[in-house]
Write a structure and sequence with these properties.
alpha/beta, 5-stranded parallel sheet, 31% helix
């Protein structure tokens, strides 16, 4: 198991559950340190002598089965709770000290801290305590409801899914089965998201077949040449390039259509423009964009109480970018599904190519809608190192052609404590992508800096006119190099604000 079931960690108080311990939350770290750091006799002495007015007002007795934690550092304090114990949560001190507390955010961070990725650890690993049952929290009904518990659990389950997809092996090792991430396992993951959704996948040379999907535009003349080109170097069918297409809620034609697109490069060697050994070390996470849209789709489709009033389409171009006799080459010219020709300046700028085909296809809308464009397109991609330089590893950059979307997303990120930062689509930088032999280059020539911006400008060429579009350049890993969902909860909240 990577992590416990979130619904097993948090529950509402009832007569059937008898907590063994009390967990009291506060805002002041100094107070927590004071209460937890002194023995009972010293504590009682200070209280009797009224040496501390704050302590006198906040606590009368401190029992040995009590644990006091600072709410602001709750997510880093999970290890302090004894495995297998059940704690009744006391929020009275917190509510007195804080005018406004987002309890859902508070508890979600706590649940997220229980995540462990242990698929590849041996059972006799001395450092592996995954067999220990997690601590459980019993929450007061005066503040929490079953709706809030289910909302927290849904967000946690979706976050765990993103993390585990990114952390999984990119190789093919028989003993590990489907914990390894290839284009074929990404396909199965999408297919298994919801019984209420339908999924179709076009694979390998079928990507080039004219008219191979009624939902690829009218008419579809060229096939998905860029997805095919990036993935054509592989020799194993499990790793064949493919476009995975999920549709949900499509029978409700009066609802707005939102399309999610996720970059699914399950391993990136850089192709013939090969990366260094160090540059390849984290490239199993290059499908982090696909992981994010899968996690976001999971949140949307599994919301029990207040489902978003939208129809959902998810497009995941899934490939491996490897070196082989059929690998695409620097200098090649490739035609996209919408007819745009692209000169390849660097095969290591492959993510924008597969996204370009998927964005063009999503812009066409659906045949069942007479190809009415979607109301909103959102793509996630581990696209550029330039975004990491600008934002660091934990804040994803986003680009959008809609100021309304930008305002909503910034507001949403603040409300759910999942911050994102807007970068500009600089019009004058478009000239950096000019090609002498094709419609556009996939990387600038003779232009230094602004790599995240020029990558976003390339993608914009494949988004239909008049369609609201958000592009998220996400890192996909935290500072400890483990998989992390970044901006996913903010995006869900933005959709809730826009379409409520």
């Amino acid at each position: 198991m990577s992590s416990p079931d979130p619904s097993s960690i948090i529950s509402l108080d009832s007569n059937e559950t008898t907590p063994s311990k009390l967990l009291t939350l506060h805002t002041k770290k100094s107070y927590v340190s004071f209460v937890n750091g002194l023995d009972d006799q010293t504590r009682e002495l200070l209280l009797d002598q009224k040496k501390s007015k704050f302590v006198e007002n906040q606590i009368s007795t401190v029992k040995t089965n009590e644990l006091h934690l600072c709410a602001k550092s709750l997510s880093s304090s999970f290890s302090l709770l004894r495995p297998g114990s059940t704690y009744s949560v006391d929020l009275s001190a917190l509510t007195k000290q804080e005018d406004s507390v987002n309890y859902n955010n508070l508890l979600l961070k706590f649940v997220l801290s229980s995540y462990k990725f242990t698929q590849y650890k041996s059972a006799d690993d001395d450092d592996d305590d995954s067999a220990s049952p997690p601590a459980k929290l019993i929450l007061p009904r005066t503040i929490f409801s079953q709706t809030s518990i289910d909302t927290i659990a849904n967000a946690a389950e979706s976050t765990f899914l993103v993390r585990s997809l990114i952390n999984g092996n990119a190789g093919e090792y028989k003993s590990f089965g489907d914990t390894q991430i290839s284009p074929s396992t990404i396909q199965r993951c999408v297919e298994n998201l919801s019984e209420k959704a339908t999924t179709t996948t076009i694979t390998g040379d079928d990507l080039l077949t004219e008219g191979n999907s009624e939902d690829w535009g009218e008419p579809n003349k060229y096939g998905a040449g860029m997805i095919h080109a990036v993935g054509q170097g592989v020799t194993n069918e499990k790793f064949s390039p493919r476009l995975i297409d999920l549709k949900y809620n499509m029978e409700k034609k009066n609802l707005p259509l939102v399309t999610l697109v996720g970059k699914g490069v399950t391993f990136d060697t850089g192709g013939l423009s090969m990366k260094t050994a160090g540059g390849m070390l984290t490239m199993k996470k290059d499908m982090g964009g696909a992981a994010h849209v899968i996690g976001l789709a999971n949140m949307i489709m599994n919301e029990k109480h207040n489902p978003l009033p939208i129809r959902l389409r998810v497009l995941v171009p899934a490939v491996e970018n490897v070196v082989g006799p059929n690998s695409f080459r620097p200098g090649d010219v490739i035609r996209a599904v919408n007819g745009i020709t692209v000169e390849i300046g660097n095969t290591d700028a492959e993510g924008r190519l597969i996204l370009g085909d998927a964005l063009a296809i999503s812009s066409c809308g659906l045949a069942s809608d007479n190809f009415t464009p979607p109301d909103l397109i959102i793509d996630f991609a581990t696209l550029t190192g330039a975004a990491r330089v600008a934002m660091g590893p934990e804040i994803p950059a986003f680009f959008t052609n809609s100021d309304e979307c930008a305002d909503l997303l910034s507001k949403a990120g603040g409300e759910v404590d999942d911050p994102m930062w807007r970068l500009p689509l600089v019009e004058s930088y478009k000239t950096a992508l000019k090609s002498k032999i094709a419609d556009v280059r996939n990387v600038p020539e003779g232009f230094v800096g602004g790599g995240a911006i020029t990558a976003a400008l390339f993608l914009e060429k494949f988004v239909g006119k008049g369609i609201d579009w958000i592009h998220v350049d996400v890192n996909g890993a935290s500072r400890d190099k483990m998989g992390e969902a970044q901006g996913m909860r903010a995006m869900y909240e933005m959709l809730r604000l826009r379409f409520r």
